[in-house]
Amino acid sequence: MKLLVVLLPLLGLALCDPTVYFSEKFEDDSFESRWIPSESKGADAGKFVLSAGKFYGDAEKDKGIQTSQDAKFYGLSAKFDKFSNEGKTLVIQFTVKHEQNIDCGGGYAKIFSSDLNPKEMHGESPYNIMFGPDICGPGTKKVHVIFSYKGKNLLTKKDIRCKDDVYTHLYTLILRADNTYEVKIDNEKVESGELEADWDFLAPKKIKDPEAKKPEDWDERENIDDPEDTKPEDWDKPEHIADPDAKKPDDWDDDMDGEWEPPMIDNPEYQGEWKPKQIDNPAYKGKWIHPEIDNPDYVADDKLYLYEDFGAIGFDLWQVKSGTIFDNILITDDEDYAKEQGQETWGKTKDAEKEMKDKQDEEERKQREEEEAKRKEEEGEDAEEGDEDDMGEIDEDEDEEPEEEGDIDHDEL
C-alpha cells in the first residue's frame, strides 16, 4: 500500500508532462537545415540571418532569425509531426524584437496544416492560425489573431495593441478546448474571451424579424411644437439695415458714380427665424425596437477551437525597414510550461538587454555632445583668425606722415 501511495503522485506527474509539438531557439546555423525559404517571391525575397542584434541580454541565447534587407518579402517555414488539438489546450508562443524601430511591417507567425509546401508558401497559402504583432504607421499597431474556419479567415473583433518599442517581447496565444482563448504579452494577459463572441465563426443567433414592421401611427417624437405658441406680431425684422449714420461723401457724383446708397449693417432688432417652443409629446411611444427571432441559419458548434491537422509554422511577411528578430518559438499543450519557458528565455535576458541599449544610447549621446562641442570650438577659432586678419590690414594713407602746420610749399613762393 505504501508503494502505491508513492507511485500515484509520480504517475500523476507523468500524466501531466507537457507535450511539445515544436520548439526552436535558433542556437546556431543548423536552423537552415530545418527551415526552408519560400521561392514564391523570387528576387523580391529577403534573407533571414542568425543574429542577436545590436543590443541583447545574452550574445548566444538571444540569437534568432533576423530580417536583413529593406523593402522585401520574407518567407520561411519549418515542418513538424502532424497533430490535432482535439480535446486539448494549444499554446503558440514566440519572441519578437523590432530592433530597427519598425515603421511598417509584420511580426506574426502562421500555423499551417501538414500539407504545406514550404518552397511555394506565399500570402495566399491557406493557414489555420495567424498570430503576432503588425505595425504600419501610427494607425496600425495591433496583435493579429486570425482563425481559419470553413475556408474563411476570421479577424478578431477586438483591438489588441502590440508593443511598438525596440525591445524583445514575448507573445503567447492560448486556445482552449472549451472554446475560450487568451492572449498574453510578456507573460501578462492582455485579452481573453469566448471564440464565438469575439470572432464571426457562426451566423448570429438572433436576427430582426423580417415580418415585423413599425406601425404607421407609432410616434417616436419625444417633443413637439407647442400648438398654442404663436409668433409675436413684431417678430419679423430684417437681418440687415442701412447704416443710419452713413453720409454720402461730398465728392460723390451721381452722374459718374451712380445713385449713392448707404452701406448695410446688422440689424440690432433682428431676432432670427421664429420657432415655436417645444413641449412633451403626449403621443410619444418611445423608440420602436425591431423585434428579433431565432436565426434559422444559426448552427451551434462546440468545437470552434478544433483543428484536425497542424504540421508547419512559417513567417510570411513584408517589411519596409528590416531588422526584426524572431526567437524562442514554442508550440505546446501546456500553459504553465509555456509560461515557464517564456520566463527562462525572454524573462532572463530582457533586463540585461535594456541595460545594454541604455548604455549604447548614453555613449552615443556623449559622442554627439563631444562632436558638437568640437564643431563650435573650431568655428570659434576660425572667427578669431578672421578678426586677426582684419586687424592686420593697414590703410596706405595712414602710412604717410601728415604735413606740419609750419611747412611751406615752395611753389607758392
TrEMBL record:
Record bears the keyword Repeat: yes
Residues engaged in binding an alpha-D-glucoside: Y108, K110, Y127, D134, D316
Q: Which GO terms describe its molecular function?
A: calcium ion binding; carbohydrate binding; unfolded protein binding
What keyword terms does UniProt attach to this protein?
Calcium, Chaperone, Disulfide bond, Endoplasmic reticulum, Lectin, Metal-binding, Repeat, Signal, Zinc
Q: Which Pfam families match?
A: Calreticulin (PF00262)
Q: Where is the composition biased (Acidic residues)?
A: 217-228, 379-413
Q: Which residues form the signal peptide?
A: 1-16
**Locations listed in the record:** Endoplasmic reticulum lumen
Which InterPro entries does the entry mention?
Calret/calnex, Calret/calnex_CS, Calreticulin, Calreticulin/calnexin_P_dom_sf, ConA-like_dom_sf
Q: Name one GO cellular component term.
A: endoplasmic reticulum lumen
What spans are recorded as compositionally biased (Basic and acidic residues)?
229-250, 338-378
Region: Disordered; residue ranges are: 210-258, 336-413
GO process annotations (BP) = ERAD pathway; protein folding
Q: Hey, which family's this protein in?
A: Belongs to the calreticulin family.
Q: What is this protein called?
A: Calreticulin
Source organism (scientific name):
Owenia fusiformis (Polychaete worm)
- Organism classification, top ranks? Eukaryota, Metazoa, Spiralia, Lophotrochozoa, Annelida
